Amino acid sequence: MMPMDALKQYIDLYTDNAEVIDSHSAPVLNELRQTACDLLKSSRFPTKKDEGFHKTSINDMFAPDFGVNINRYNIPVDVAESFRCDIPNVSTLLAVVVNDRFVATRPLLNNLPEGVTVTSLAAAARLHPELVKKYYGRIAPGDNVNVALNNMLVQDGVFIHLSKNVVLEKPLQLVNIFDGPAPMAAFRRVLIVAEENSFANILVCDHTRNRDGAYLSSEVMEVMLEKGASVGLYGIEESSANTARYSQMFVRQEHDSSFSAASSTLLNGVTRNDYNVSLNGENCSAELAGIVIADGKSHIDNNSNVIHNAPHCRSNQLFKYLLDGESSGAFEGSIVVRPEAPFTEGYQSNHNILASDKARMHTRPQLLIFNDEVKCSHGATTGQLDPDALFYMQTRGIPVDQARRLLMQAFMSDAVDTIRVDAIRDRLRHLLERRLTGEDLLCAECGSDCHK
C-alpha cells in the first residue's frame, strides 16, 4: 500500500460526509475542518523512513479499514461493568468516553465544585464558544498531520476548565473505553485550561473491553497552564493486543506554572505517545515520566520534545522500559534550550531492561542547546537484570521468579515515585505487581475484587 492510501480514505470520508459530520458537532469545531482537509490533501502519514518515526509507522497504524461513527449512533456499553477498577482510598470525580462519546457520571455531575467544568467538548463549544475558541486548535499545531486529521474528523471530546484560584481537591478520573462489534477508529480530543493559580490532578485510563475487536485511537490533547497553575496528568493504558493508539499531548506553560505527566503502558498492541511541552514563562517546571511493560509482540514508542523558551525554568524526563517476549520499544526525546532561556536546568534519562533475547529497544536522547548559561544532561542505558543480584537473592531462599519480579519492581520504583498523588501512585504499584505476575489487568475481566 502506498503511503498516501492510508490518509486518503479519511479525506474521502470527510469529503463525502462533511454536512453529516458538521451537523453532529459544534460550529467552533467545524471551523477548522476544511482547512485541515486542504492541508491533508498534500500530506501523508509518517512511515519508518521519516525522522522521529524510525521504529513506528503511523501509516501502517491507520491503514486498516476502521469504521468511524460519524452519525453518532449510541453504541450501548455498560460503563459499570466495563470499568470496576476504581482507585482505592480516594474519591475521584469520574468521567467516561465510550469510543468517542463523552458520558458524565452522576458523581461527577453532583460533586464538581464551583469554578470547575468537566463536560463534552461539543457542548462546551455551543454554550461557551468564545472560551473554547480561545484555546481549541491554538496549542496543537494545525500543520501536524495527525492534528490536522483530528481537526477534520473529531466531533466531540472532553473539555476541562479550572477558573482562577480554584483548587480541585479530588483527582479527576477520565476513562476511555473501546467497545463495539466491528473494527472502529475513535478521534478523541481533550482540551484542558488551567487559569491563574489553579490546581488539579487528572488520571486518564485507556481500556479495551472487547479484546478481540480491532480499534484505533487517534487522540490530541491540548493543555494550557496560565500563571501559577499546577496540573498533574497521569495516564494508564490497559488496552489489548488488537488496539492501536496514537496520542499527542501539547502543553503550553506560562510563568510560575508547574506541569507533571506520567504515562504507564501496561497492556497494549501498538502505541505511539508524543509529548510536546513549551515553557514560555519564567520559573516554570515540567516533569515527564514514562513506564512501559511489554511482552508478546506489542510495541510502544514514546517521543518527547521539551522546549525552554524563557529563563529560570526546569525540566526533567525519566522513561523506563521493561521488554519481554518479542516486544519492542522506542524512545526519542529532546530538550531544546532557546537563546532567550538562560539559567535553564534540563535533564533526561532513559533506562531499559530486555528480559528476553528477542526483545528490542531503540533509544535516542538529544540535547539542542543555544545558550551557555544552562545545566543540562541526558543519558540512556539498555541491559538485562543483574545476574549477581539474582544469584544473591536465590542464595537467600527467594525463588528465581520472585527474585526477577522484585528486581523489576525496584527498577520501576523511581518512575512511579514521580506521581504526586499517593493513592494513584499506590494503585500503579498494585497494577505493576499484577502485571509482572501475569495476572489479567483488563478490568472487564477481573470482576468486583479487582481493586482489592
Can you describe this structure in just a few lines?
It contains 13 helices and 19 strands. It is an alpha/beta fold.
Describe this structure in words.
- The protein has 452 residues and is an alpha/beta fold.
- The chain has one domain.
- It is built from 13 helices and 19 strands.
- Strand 1 (93-98) and strand 2 form a beta hairpin.
- Helix 10 (387-395) packs across helix 11 (400-416) and helix 11 runs antiparallel to helix 12.
- It starts with a helix and ends in a 6-residue tail after the last helix.
- The model is unreliable at 443-452 (pLDDT under 50).
Number of helices: 13
Number of strands: 19
* Sheet/helix structural class: alpha/beta
Write out the strand line-up for the largest beta sheet, numbering strands in chain order: 2-1-5-7-9-11-13-15-17-19
